[in-house]
Amino acid sequence: MIQFDRVSKTYPSGAGPVTALHDVSLQIAPGEFVALIGPSGCGKSTLMRLIGDLEQPTTGVVSVGGKTPEQARRDRDYGIVFQAPVLYEWRTIRKNVELPLEIMGRPAVQRRARSQSLLQLVGLSDFGDAYPHQLSGGMQQRAAIARALSFEPSILLMDEPFGALDEITRERLQLELLSIWSSAAERPTVIFVTHSIPEAVFLADRVVVMSPRPGRVQRIITIDLPRPRNFETREAARFFSLVTEVREQLRITEALNMEH
Amino acid sequence: MAEETLVPDRRRTNATPVRAFPIRELLRTGARRVTPVLLTVLIILVFWEVSKWLFAIPDQRLPSLGALVEAMFTRTQGGAGPLLIIQMLLNAWATFKVAAGGFLIGGLLGFGLALLFTQAPPLERGFLPYVIGSQTVPILAIAPMVVVGLGRMGAEPWVAKMIVAAYLTFFPVTIGMLRGLRAASPLSRDLMHSYAAGPLQTFWKLRLPVSLPYLFTALKVAASASVIGAIVAELPAGSREGIGVMILNAAQFYNSRPPALYLAILVAGLLGVAAYSLVALAERLVLGARYGHEPR
Q1: Which of residues 17-76 of A touch B (CB under 8 A)?
Q2: Three-state DSSP state, A204
Q3: A36: which DSSP letter?
């Protein structure tokens, strides 16, 4: 269980302190797939980074399975995927996927076996010895996902992981992500930050709609689309009505914001 | 996910193809690289002779190319010594050894200082002004102090020369590495943080590899600087070998034998180019795979 209890986050800036998150309370169940959506500046990335101990809250408490985020990080509970693949350019794809295992001191044989099966999982078995610059953006992002999965973290933090990809690649990777997630022996909890309404609805169990300045949780919409989800899900009437619901919520958010 | 949907991107197809005997390929790329060099040399030579003829420059001020070649193959010491060009190259080799030693010492010192400064920023604020100041003092003023001073203390002459070469070498390396060791992107550092990597692991697996392109750029500057340092250290009276000594000697006899000075300058220049090229070669070997083409 990931828990936010009245969490606020303020950054200092030249023009005085900026409130990125204001009084956020939120609970995420183990194994749940939660999408965070909202306009720029709504603090959705900050929320994700607070869970991952990449930022510290100004007030309030974040707890991750009863632990502090720092303890959870030290216990290697997090796999992170950013919008950019952030592959280390001097390492082959295989060595990039093995990087976390290397740091955790796993033996070479075990690393090799793990990277082999992960590269297969994300469809890159033929590219283990290639360098990142030799791969397309979509392939690089697949490698980044494989790297995040390498040590089987219980929580997957994804910050607009498909944001820089074209629509076709993007929809394919969404399907792949769902199939990887649902086939895991123990489903990781996924926190998925996105700008895309259909993406949020297609992937998540719950969509958290956030509003900007200061960032706060506006509404949480439960996505009751059946799983496994596939190409047909995107054409279902229920899918469209949920997309519309999220869109309208975002519009209300925007209108509220204009009044301020 | 099906294999055929994987469309490798353009850059992959541009990667160097591996063939059994790419001799023709090698010859072609070789020709492509050498041709501009040869053409440039040719243009300079033509320009040299044409301007000599056009402006009627006497041999005293600009020797003809023929005179240069003739001087190359003249025996030194009134006919008893080796050919002049051989003597020049032997002396250049002596200078090269000093420069290489100074390059190594200066490189390590520069690297160490950058490491120290990035680990302890207050030290950077305290000491960097002196590091910069050290480079604004003309090396011509420092070299005699070091060479003569150490000579009085009984040190071998090459020790002092190497120190002068190192003095010019460490600075670009320090500045380059200060930048390089801080060049890791915030996200790449976040990744290390999320794996709970220790400071040493972050250094070896992230900060050091990120800094290497910066290091090599700095080392290229340092390579030429180390040659200059070695030559300048040979100028104070008492040195017996090195291309710096050859330059001094040739300058003294410039009125009677102008070609010798031109030759000495030419050899000194080639020495700098050779030093630079060695670093560039090392860079290609170390960083080549990372980019799939030679770094510029």
Answers
A1: 52-54, 73-74, 76
A2: coil
A3: E
